[in-house]
Amino acid sequence: MEAVAYGEGSVGTQTYNSLQALYEHRFDRNLEAQLAYTLSKCMTNNIGFYGNAEGQSQPQGYYWQDIYNPQAEWGPCYYNTPQIFTGYAVYSLPVGHGQAFGSRLNKVANAAFGNWQYSIMTIDHKGYSLTAIDWRNWFDAWGNFVDVTPRASCDGPVQYVRQFNSRVGGERFWSSSDFTTTPHGALGNCSNGTIRGPGEMDFDMSLQKTFALMRHTNMQFRAEAVNAFNHPLFQMPDVALSDGNEFGVAAGATAAENERQVQFGLKLLF
User: Fewest CB atoms within 10 Å of the CB: 73, 83, 121, 194?
Assistant: First the structure.
């Protein structure tokens, strides 16, 4: 798919290609499941005048650094994430009345061990594309024109690290060694979307059972764990080389969230 957008005197080109796969297992032998995978790539030289983002992503500038060289703006879209995997499964344990095992359990044993249902849901996606910026010499050279986001200069491929930065108080995701300050009066040579930000991995699990109380009346018990393995969800690290030691670091009170939550519930069905 290719699109050209016109507006405010700007022209943009974008391409998107993807491979999508889906597997479904309809309820059979106590199991129902679905798995989905997407491999994709979005490329553009203009995010559009109304581009926006939040959380783990941030758009590059609305305007080109050099209107006579649009090819220099070509790079991954700010919302581009190359791989996404999602899935869920619901499994009824084959123990208890009407199941393959324990069909003759007494009422007490069946209430304790029989007819439990387990479910799991997961998402795993790689990080969004981020652009290294540098404000150090921008205002002296080009004035207070902030709609153009000045890019940093790159000396080599991005080196990804995962280490705690005690000076800033956050998690560092890439090294600053391959980025340099753009010289005064020059334009940064880093492409848009050069950096891959932190992704997301999450597992939600639940265990439930329905107890028969009397005719047409049941009690359902549920135990749920949201983000069961307590994987942190990091916000976008600092992408401004001009911020010094904070560059490449996700810091602050909201740098990581989505902590594990465990909850229990009872529901009366009648």
Answer: 83
